[in-house]
Structures are given as structure tokens and as C-alpha cells.
Amino acid sequence: MKKPTRIVHSGRGGKYAPGMINVPVYHASTIVFPTVAEFRQAVARRNEQVLYYGRRGTPTQWALADAMTELEGGAGCVLYGSGLAAITASILAFVKAGDHLLMTDSVYEPARMFCDNVLRDIGVETTYYDPLIGGGIAGLMRPNTSAVFTESPGSLTFEIQDIPAIAAAAHAGGAVVLNDNTCASPLNLRVLDLGADVAIHSLTKYVVGHSDAMLGAAVANEASLARLQRSGYLYGHSASPDDCYLALRGLRTLAPRMKQCGETALRLAEWFKQRPEVDRVLHPALPDCPGHDVWRRDFTGASSIFSIVMKQSSDAAVSAMLDGYRHFSIGFSYGGFESLVLPSNPSGARTATTWAGPLIRFHAGLEDTDDLIADLEAGLERFNAVL
Ligand SMILES: *Cc1c(COP(=O)(O)O)cnc(C)c1O
To answer: For a substitution probing ligand 1, which of 84, 178, 179, 243 has the most ligand atoms within 8 Å of its CB?
Structure first.
């Protein structure tokens, strides 16, 4: 079955609410048991999809977890209140005091801050590595390296990582491979098949898809699932049933949204590439993007986001360009139906590689591409007028 078909069928309501297309929103904390015997039976089976206590989930959460497990091809899924919580709980599932973590230099910045603060405080050392290192990661492995964290494409700068090569070296050294697969969505990269042990998602982005809920998920293979479930449970993570319902609703249209937003983003990226003001366009589907060959080998499609670096820039010119957009709103996140733009400068968040200067990240929404290009064109006129 192809992914778009799976997206329609996975985690549907019928399994939990016969006849219903969508699983209802179940609000529950206390679950009551008619007899002591039934209570004890639920205690014994509490790690399964059995009504036990609200924090362990209800059919609303289970349906979303089922869908993510199926789409990522894993053994099970743990849900969290945000993507960042999914990242931190996944890391904490596999490291202990005295351990060493290898972290891609292009990681989502709050995850980096977690390593530099929380992990440091509990005695876990982090080494950042060049996202393009590939099999060379073997040279950074230590006897106490317990996890290698990957994110591909990298946040803001879009480097593509050679996950199979990294996973082979990590596994040879006894480490698990965690991957932040948010940018690819469950659609464009089968990262567990490529050797990752845990696929992490900020569902906030493409799965929710409508900029109205925060949620995270981590899908693990058989060998890693028990550790992941243990950390999720003991840190007390839970996901709101209302937000899980929104994620399930968003999921059903993921394939056409990704397709259209991806096509629009590529057209915008190619348009920027022709412009004399633009020095570089960072989009994995463009042949000069770092890791493009690996992207072609491993990914089945492009996402809605890309960045540009201007040849010459000034704060005032960038502000004039962004402030006047009609369709690109200034804001964090991506994956919604509306186009976004984000001024950024990753220079301070790179230590294994160097990055100099500001960039501008775009998210293509579902607006008409010609309208978006007209908006970008007017933006560059404002940029030039102020520069
Ligand atoms: C947004 C994002 C996160 C964080 O997710 P939240 O749901 O906002 O906490 C993590 N990783 C990547 C790649 C992201 O884009």
C-alpha cells in the first residue's frame, strides 16, 4: 500500500468505535473498574492499549499513535505535548550520567540548548558533528557514546545527512540512532528503514497542518520501544485528546498538502535562484544543496520550507521586505496552510561547522503560486529601495 493510501486508513475510528470514520474525542482521567478482578487485569496489561488511567491514553491518543507507528513502520509510538518534549524524552530514554551523545550541528536550536544545559547538568557530554560527516562519524564514537542524534534536512540550513552510513557506524559502536524527522513529515523519508531506531516528529508542523495545536511523537523500532515508553511514562508525558483529534484530522490531508506546498516551495526557490540579490538558495532538491545526492537517494519528496542568503543585506532592508509581505506572515513554525517567513541567523548555533551571517526561511502554504511570487517580487523591490 502506498503512503497516501495508508495516511487515509491508518488509525481510523472503526477499531475503537465501530462504524465511525473518525475516533471520538475521549476526555478521561479516572477510569473506574467494576470489580477488583477487572482492576487487577487492567494493572497487568497497563502497557497495552487498555483503559487504565488518563495519562496512559484513551482511544483518541491510541488512534494517533497507531497511525504514526504504521506510517513510520515502527513497533510503537509515544505521544508528547510538543515536538521538543518528544526530542528531550527520546534522548533521556537512552542516556545516563557519564554517557556521551553525538549531536548534529544543524539541530533545531532548542534541542541544542537542552544538550548544553540539562544534559550538561546531569553529566551527559555532547559532541556536535558536521551534518555531512556520513560514515566519518565512526571517528567520533567513544566507548560511552550511547546515542547519535540526526536531523535531516538540518534546521534552517537544510543539509541532508547520510543516515544509513551514520547508523551503520553508530550501531557498530553500540549506540542508538535518534532522528528528528519533522521536516520530512511521515511522508517523505522512511527513516527507520534507513537504520534509525527512533523517528521523532513535531506533529505541530505538517501533521496538525493548520497552526492550531502543539504535539510531538516518537516512533521506535522493536529493540528501542520499551526504553522510549519507560521514559515517556515516568517523565509524565501525556497528549491532549483534543489536540490528538486535530492531528488525526490534519493527517488525512497530509499527502496532498505536502505535494502542493512542496511544489510551490520548489518553484519559489527556483525563482529566488534567478534573482541577482540572492547569493544562495538552500533547498535540498536543488543540485547545489549540501547532501543533494543523498536527498535524491533517500527522500520521496521535498517539503515546504527553504532558506535564502542575500548577497548583500542590512537589517533595515530585510525588515522592509518582510514587513510589507501580504501573504508571508512573520512567525515561527511551518507546515500550516498559510505561508510564513522567518528572519534568522544560525551563526551562534553552530560549533562543529561555521555559518556566517543571516538567512531568511520561507514556508510555502496553499496560496496560489503566482500570487506568492508577486508578493516576493514586491518584497525585493522594497529590499532594494532600502539597501
Ligand atoms: C518545530 C520543530 C521542533 C519543535 O517542535 P514543537 O512542537 O514546536 O515543540 C523540533 N524539531 C524540528 C525540526 C522542528 O521544526
So the answer is: 84
Tell me: do 146 and 285 sit in the same domain: no
Indicate whether this model's pTM tops 0.90: yes
Q: Which domain holds residue 102?
A: 3-251
Q: Coil, strand, or helix at residue 129?
A: strand
- Is 55 considered catalytic here? yes
Q: What is the pLDDT of residues 242-286, one digit of tens each?
A: 999 999 999 999 999 999 999 999 999 999 999 999 999 999 999
φ/ψ (deg, to 5) at 340: -135, 160
- Joined grid coordinates for residue 147: 546515542
Cβ partners under 8 Å of residue 38, min gap 6 = none
Do residues 97 and 199 share a domain?
yes
Phi/psi region, residue 19 (left: phi>0; alpha: psi -120 to 50; beta: rest), is left
Instruction: Report d(CA 292, CA 365) in Å as an integer.
Output: 23
Longest CA–CA span in the chain (Å) reads 77
